[in-house]
Amino acid sequence: MSRTSPVATADLERRIHALFDGYAQSPLLADDLAPEDFQWRETVDFLGHLEGRKVLDVGCGKGRFLSALSSHGAHAVGLEPSSEVGRAARAKGHKVVRASASRIPFVDGLFDACICVEVLEHVPDTDAALREMARVLRWGGRLMVIDKSVFALHPKWLVPWALVKRTRELSGRWMYPRDFPFREKWFRPGALAKKLARHFGRVEVKYLTLGTAAPGRFRAAILRRFPCVSLYVAWRAVK
Fold first, then answer.
1. Which residues pair with 56 in a beta bridge?
2. Is pLDDT above 90 for 105?
3. pTM for the full model?
4. Rounded CA gap, 205 and 2, in Å?
5. Does residue 54 surpass a pLDDT of 70?
6. Cβ-count burial 185-196 (b if 16+ within 10 Å, e if not)
7. Where are the domains of the chain?
């Protein structure tokens, strides 16, 4: 059986979700958002007015974005495949459905907006997740994806972040164990934008330099001049 078959992909997803169950009490998964959080600021800037809007948080974790969305008047719903992590979000009073990003259990066109923050990197079938998020959005609905770029430079050492990541993976100092059959995926910004363009009428790529700590004037200047080496990227799409 091919590893890319639906059965194999579903089995891999289950293993990933079980791994995240073990991180439910870990600081690796943040509980709350700081008011000045750069990812939240970018999200609000793109989504605009939230009062009364239906927003789906794909891979909601412990509900940090759900809390912020709800405080702005949105009707926020979380999608979380990990039973233990989803339980932590429900304990805060949030509505959370246990499901995978590649199989979203909602009807077409239900939501006004959808966010997917540092989640797509953990989904084996990227194309299925993008297709599903587009499906549950109404026409004119907005999708915000924030994730990491494979072209990023480490802000301190100015070497490829992907090289640092791979070195830590091989030494067992990354989220996934060394012998795990999946690795956290980072993206080529242009390639992911093309995938999104199959489902959305407008797609923009924005490099989030504020999310990259750059000690020293020289390193900060490099980020200002070459934002494409930033670690975090926002893909902003309108259906």
1. 77, 114
2. yes
3. 0.94
4. 33
5. yes
6. ebbebeebbebb
7. 6-148+187-213+233-238
